[in-house]
């Protein structure tokens, strides 16, 4: 081996040693740096892209930037909505509800009213129907009822004498009524003939009775009440059913609902009559549903009947704290139910009707008794006069109940 070759090998060994020392030094420095540098600085996360803002977030940002304009828009919407509701109510109140007429101007729509003829609420109802352009037939069971109807001196308000006790005479009267609907009529000579259309059968029985304890009600009183208020109503409805089905007439049942809903003591007869009529109309509605005939139950609350109100003022009876529902609302609701294609099955008319119906359905009897003040004034209902109980669906009994509530 020559000297040059030895020198070259020596230089290479020295270079490798120096390189190894440098590499070990850098590894040592790197290890020390790893001990002192935090982990979060060693791994830099990849920046995440934020999702686009939603519509709600954009709306919130816009509202936060334009608070004054937002308040103005909210105030405008609220006042506009209230104004629209008031306008709709006023327009509904001013809406003319009139029965249809023929080309010659004659009346064509027929309504039959069955119930308490002399009841102020019932008499106000059939008089209003006659004023609206209906031919109104009122079922009269006695000669006194027939005389009362004729005393109203209305051309298109006619009595229809039907005595359920005499089925042959009653059927004869129904046949005459059916023949009246089937034949053509002329308003005057050379006028275009027209037919009558049976549009509504209104049942308005007087379900109210004198308050009494169950143990003091005789079997004769039970029999009279059920015969006069339930069986007569069912028998009269059965007589008119063929004509109702043929002409697709609406059936309306009007009953006071406050006392039966609350199940008050000393009102067993009234609650029993109400329950019987409600069960009858419910079953009848299910049977007539296939015929396309609707049965509507009007649950009446406190209604202001002018004749009853005037009588109470003359007798010095204090007026209730809360204003009752005007009688016109009942008349408008009855008209709407008869002319509507799909009327509701249940109508709540009168102050307290819906509220007491809900209370009586959900609260236990003990809670209702506590609300009515049972134990403080147990004779509150006995203070009502019998003639007031028989007077109207807006009778004094309801006012006493509502004043206690």
From TrEMBL:
Residue ranges crossing the lipid bilayer per the database entry: 68-88
Alphabetical UniProt keywords: Membrane, Transmembrane, Transmembrane helix
InterPro entries: DUF1776_fun, NAD(P)-bd_dom_sf
Coiled coil: none
Pfam families (alphabetical): DUF1776
Keyword match Transmembrane helix: yes
Protein name: DUF1776-domain-containing protein
Top-level taxon of the source organism: Eukaryota
Keyword Transmembrane among UniProt keywords: yes
């Amino acid at each position: 081996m020559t000297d040059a070759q030895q020198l070259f090998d020596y230089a290479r060994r020295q270079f490798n040693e120096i390189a190894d020392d440098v590499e070990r030094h850098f590894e040592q420095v790197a290890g020390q740096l790893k001990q002192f540098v935090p982990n979060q600085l060693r791994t830099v996360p990849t920046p995440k892209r934020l999702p686009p803002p939603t519509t709600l977030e954009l709306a919130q940002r816009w509202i936060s930037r334009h608070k004054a304009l937002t308040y103005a828009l909210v105030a405008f919407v609220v006042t506009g909505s209230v104004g629209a509701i008031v306008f709709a109510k006023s327009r509904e109140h001013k809406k003319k509800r009139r029965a249809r007429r023929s080309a010659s101007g004659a009346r064509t729509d027929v309504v039959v009213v069955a119930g308490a003829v002399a009841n102020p609420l019932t008499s106000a109802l059939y008089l209003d129907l006659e004023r609206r352009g209906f031919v109104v037939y009122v079922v009269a069971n006695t000669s006194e009822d027939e005389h009362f109807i004729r005393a109203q001196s209305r051309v298109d308000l006619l009595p229809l004498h039907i005595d359920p006790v005499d089925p042959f005479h009653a059927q004869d009267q129904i046949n005459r009524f059916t023949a009246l609907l089937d034949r053509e009529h002329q308003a005057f000579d050379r006028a275009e003939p027209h037919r009558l259309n049976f549009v509504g059968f209104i049942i308005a029985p007087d379900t109210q009775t004198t308050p009494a304890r169950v143990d003091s009600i005789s079997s004769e009183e039970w029999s009279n009440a059920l015969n006069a208020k339930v069986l007569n109503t069912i028998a009269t409805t059965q007589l008119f059913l063929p004509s109702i089905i043929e002409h697709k007439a609406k059936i309306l049942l009007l009953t006071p609902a406050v006392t039966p809903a609350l199940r008050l003591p000393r009102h067993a007869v009234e609650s029993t009559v109400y329950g019987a009529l409600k069960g009858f109309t419910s079953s009848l509605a299910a049977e007539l549903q296939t015929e396309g005939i609707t049965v509507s139950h009007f649950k009446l609350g406190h209604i202001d009947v002018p004749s009853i109100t005037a009588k109470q003022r003359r007798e010095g009876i204090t007026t209730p704290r809360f204003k009752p529902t005007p009688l016109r609302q009942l008349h408008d609701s009855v008209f709407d139910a008869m002319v509507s294609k799909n009327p509701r099955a249940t109508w709540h008319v009168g102050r307290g009707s819906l509220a007491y119906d809900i209370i009586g359905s959900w609260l236990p009897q003990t809670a209702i008794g506590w609300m009515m003040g049972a134990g403080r004034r147990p004779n509150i209902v006995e203070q009502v006069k019998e003639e007031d109980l028989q007077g109207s669906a807006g009778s004094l009994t309801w006012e006493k109940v509502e004043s206690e509530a």
